[in-house]
Every structure is written in C-alpha cells, then in structure tokens.
Amino acid sequence: MRKGKAGDVLLRIILAVLLVIMVMPLVMLCTNSLMGKQELLESFGAVLSDCAGMAEFRLFPRYPTMRAYVRLLLDTPEYFTAFWNSALLAGGVVAGQVFTAVPAAWALARFDFPGKAVLKFVYMLLLILPFQVTMVSGYLVLDTLKLLDTYWAVILPGIFSALPLFILSKSFSAIPKEVIEAAKIDGAGDFGIFVKIGVPLGMPGISSVVILGFLEYWNAVEQPLTFLKTETLKPLSLYLPVMLKGEVQTAFAASIVTLLPAVLLFFCGQDSLEKGIGASGSF
Amino acid sequence: MRSRRKWSRRAWIFLLPDLLGTTGFVLIPFLDVFRRSLLQAVGDGFVGLDNYRAVLENKAFRLAAFNTARFMAICLPLLLLLSLGVAVMFQNVADKGNRKRRWKDLKAGFTLPMAIPAASVVVFFQMLFDEKGWLNLLAGRLGFGGRDWLNGASAFWVLVACYIWKNLGYDMLLWLTGIAGIEKEQYEAARVQGAGGFACFYYITLPQLKGTASVTALLSFVNAFRVFREAYLLSGDYPHESIYMLQHLFNNWFVNLDIQKLTAAASLLVLVTGVFLLTAGALFRVPGLGGTGRTGGKKTKKGRRNG
Question: How far is CA A52 from CA A246, B32, B60, in A?
C-alpha cells in the first residue's frame, strides 16, 4: 500500500513537470508581452536585436505595462491586414471543408458501392503525402485557372484535404446501425437520415474537424508561401516572422495576439475536440 | 427492397462535391505532373526516366531523403512511446483521483501546444536556443560552454524536441481513448489472480492497443512533415544540413523552377508511399477511412437487449 502511494506521488510529480514544459512557452510569451521597451531590450536585446552580452531570463516583468499592445494596436496597420488575411483563409478553408467533407465522409462510412476500396486508397494516400508533393500540381492548376496570388489559391486546394474526411468517417461509422434502421422504418429517406441523424450525432466529429482545420490553416506556412506573392495578401504565419526582425518592442504582444484566436477556439471546443480526436483513433 | 444500383448512386451524390474538387485540384493536375516528369525541360521531348535518374543521383536529394528518414525513424518511436507513457501515467493517477475537472484541465494543458501557431512560438524557441539565449545562459551558470544550438548538428534535436512538444498531447488523447475502450473487468480479474501493474499493462493493455497504435503512428507520421513550419520559420530556406529535409528541397526546387526534378521526385514519393500503403495494408490491418468494424460488437449487445 505504501509503495503504491509513493509511486503515485512520483507519477504526479512527473506529470506536473511535463505540464510545466508544455505550457511554458505560452506562459513566457504572455508575461514577456507585458514588458516595457527598456526591460525588453535588457532581457532580449542580445538575441533579438543583436545587442552585446547574454539574454536574461525573467519570468515576470518588473514593470508590467500594456504599452506593447497599445503600440501594436495603434502603430501597425500591416499587422491587422495580415490578421484579417489569416482569418479569411482559415475561415474559408474550414467552411469549404465542412460542406464537402461531411457528405463525402457520410458516403464512405455508410454506403457500399463499387470502387469504394480504390477511393479509400486514394484518400488515404492524399492524407499521408505532405503538401510539398502536391505543390507543383496545385501550382499548375491554379495557374491555369488564373487564381495564383489570390485568397482562392490557398482556400480552394485547402478545402479538399483528406484529414477531415478521415476523422468524420470514423465518427460517422460509430453511429449505431439500429438508429438508422429505425429511421428508415419511420420512412426517412437517405437525405433525411443524413440531415436528421447523421449530422446531429456526428456533431462532435464535425466540430473537431472545424477546430483542427482552423488550427491547421491559421498556422499554414507552406501553402501561402507557395501560392501568394503579394505582401498584403500574406497571413500572420508569414508576416509575423518578418515583422519580428528587429522589432523587439511588439514581438511578444504580436505573438500573443496571433495565437489568441487559435487558443481561444481550442479551449472553447475542448470537449468536442477531445471526442473527435478520440473517435479518429478508435477502431 | 432497394436495388444495389440505387444505393450506390446515392453514395456518389454525397461524394460528388468532395470528389469533384479532389479530382480537379489534385488528381488530374497530378497526372499532368507525372506526364511532365517524363519530359525534357525545354520543348516536349520524351526523356523516359532520365529525370528520375537525375533526382536519385542528386546529392541534395540524397541528403534530404536521408534526413527525413532519420527524423522519422527517431521521432516516431520516441513520440509514440512517450505519449503512451504519459497516457498510462495519466490514466493511473486520474483513476484514483475523483476531481474530474482538474484532470480535464491537465489534459487541456498537455494538448495546448497543438493550438499554438509556429509563427508565435518561434520567438520563444529563438530565445531558448540562440547562442546568447536561455539554454546557454543556464549552461554557463552550470559551468558548461554554450553553443549555437540552431546552427549545428544539435539543430536536429531541437527539431525533434519541437515535434514532440507539439504532438505529445494529441497522441496522448489518442492513446487515452484506446485505453478507455478496454474493459475494467479484465484488470480486476487479473488483479485477483495476483498480476502486478506491469503484468496488467503488458498482457492486457498493450495487446488491445494495436489498433490505436497504428492510427496514432499514421497521424504522427502525417504531422511529422509539418515540423517544416518551425524549421522554416527558425532557419529559413537553407538551415543547417542536419535538418535539410525533403520539404526544404522541394521548396527550393520550386523557387528555382526546377520543374523536371520536382515532378520526378513528387511522382517518386507518390509511388513509394503507395507501395508502402499497399504492403502495410496487406501485412497489418491498416486504419482505413470509414468501415464498420467497430459497430459489430455494439450491435450484438443492443440487439440482445432489444430482442
């Protein structure tokens, strides 16, 4: 019994240490974003602005101030253009994914049809292959359609990712057959069953696809890097690193504002995200 | 009774929007890529497998392929083991505690890194790993010499750490679902017969996690390609050669408009992945899309209840 207790304490300690490591970057970014210009230069100048000496490690600012945020808000219109671009790209992709992947996943999970095995294989292949493999083909088709260097260049190919399909078809196949049989006996058609049973019961899967899709495209680097050239179209994921070069003052505040939508969505959707990820891992 | 034909027609209607897009944006353009991979750079002369030979003989390609393979070979087992370990620890502690809310927060804390965009966290990594950064500050206090973590062979390990930090929570969730699916009675029965914690884990938990393991491995593999984001934002187009991966190479070929090599290498990767997928599918039961494997068990239970 005593040994069990000691083991328990040890487990708790290990988990606590790991947790600290996991949340450390976010905490540091948060607290450091409250530093004033002078303090930032003292602590980070060595690394971020090529000052002499070593960086300093300060968990909490000595003189907390919101000045960095104020400056970000008032002095950097480019930042907000990029923010808006990110929102538009991520929002567009997610909306499109929901409209195409939800019915398609329903078909894969609920129907048997000739060619299903081949189709599943193709989607599986698309799931595994990294973006770089389809980079040229994407470029060629966007070039033909004259869509390069527009928002559509990132949104349209992004809509047809295989990951939402993968997660959704898992969560749709977890719906018990009896529920659907019962609806059929009540005279519901295929579309009725899809709308009245599939969509409501698959909601955790759908919301987790929405959240994961948003996180993925809010964080997209490869796609905008390849398909967008105009600076004013670029999202935060590309603009922020450029802005940070030599801009110590707002570096941390800008990083926090950048991660805010993603982290807020993550916390709000915690339950369904957990369920959806869980469903995708089940057999 | 509905005819089979009608059934399958319905299926295609549901599939249509996604299928049209996938065909138009991915499949047909990829056929074009394959066609180009067999052609000359200038003009339309057919050169057979010359481009492929050029790719395979290319030094940068060999380096990048080796680095990518090395990264996968080290990262995947490491992440899978670590996340399984954390999931088991978590399960052990959470089962005894009765403060559900707190465990939920803890789980959220572990999965938080997946929500943090690469662009934001790059500042933190810079501060940590820079020559004048925090890690060297610590090393200096402890009496060790510092080093430039990002511009040496250590860059590889920085990237490994970054990948594990980002994906540990996600994989932990996957494992936890798998563990939750194992019936508690089995453990109780084993305990009664005198099995210890390790025996329980080895003989009950592990065998039943096979399915979860293959899904987790698959998703971790997919996510492993995404470390390119952190690598690119930290070190740009040409990072230290220990982390020069296929993603960097493709990107640079793209920037330099080296279409021949790019199309050949892309076709090659599709081929390799396709063959791998087919063999894996034949050897193990690789997780597919959809399927009705899970519902079978539930059905019999419910059927009994209803009947």
Answer: 15, 54, 36
